[in-house]
Amino acid sequence: MTTVVLLVALAFVAVSGFAVVATPDPRRQAITLSLFSLCLTLLFVALQAPDVALSELAIGSAVVPLLVLLTIRKVGGR
C-alpha cells in the first residue's frame, strides 16, 4: 500500500513538474508552480516528513508564487 501511495505521489510530482516547464506564460507558470508545490507537499506527507510538508505548503504553495506574480506585475507594467 505504501509503495502505491509513493508511486502515485511521484507521478503527480513528475506531471506537475513537466507542466511548470511546459507552460509558456509566466502568470500561468506561477500557478502551475503552486500546484507543483502542493504535489511536493503530498509527497512529503507520504514520506512521513510532516515538518518539511508544512514548510513546503507555506513557502512553496503561497509565498513563492505570490512573489513571482508581484514581480511579473511590477516588471510587466513598463
Principal-axis shape: flat
Count of helical regions: 3
What is the total domain count? Answer: 1
Terminal residue distance? 53 Å
> What is the structural class?
mainly alpha
Helical coverage, percent range? over 70%
Query: How many β-strands, per DSSP?
Result: 0
- Write down the secondary-structure element order: HHH
**Computed Rg:** 14 Å
**Relative strand content:** under 5%
Mean pLDDT equals: 92
Which spans have pLDDT < 50 for at least 5 consecutive residues?
none
Largest sheet: none
Based on the model shown, name its key terms.
78 residues; flat; mainly alpha
Overview of the structural elements:
This protein is about 90% helix and about 0% strand. It has 3 helices and no strands. It has helices spanning about 1-20, 25-45, 50-75. Helix 1 runs antiparallel to helix 2. About 15% of the residues are buried. Keywords: Cell membrane, Membrane, Transmembrane, Transmembrane helix.
Secondary-structure topology with pairs:
Blueprint: H1 2-22, H2 26-46, H3 50-76
Summarize the structure in short.
It is built from three helices and no strands. It is mostly helical and 78 residues long. It has one domain (1-75).
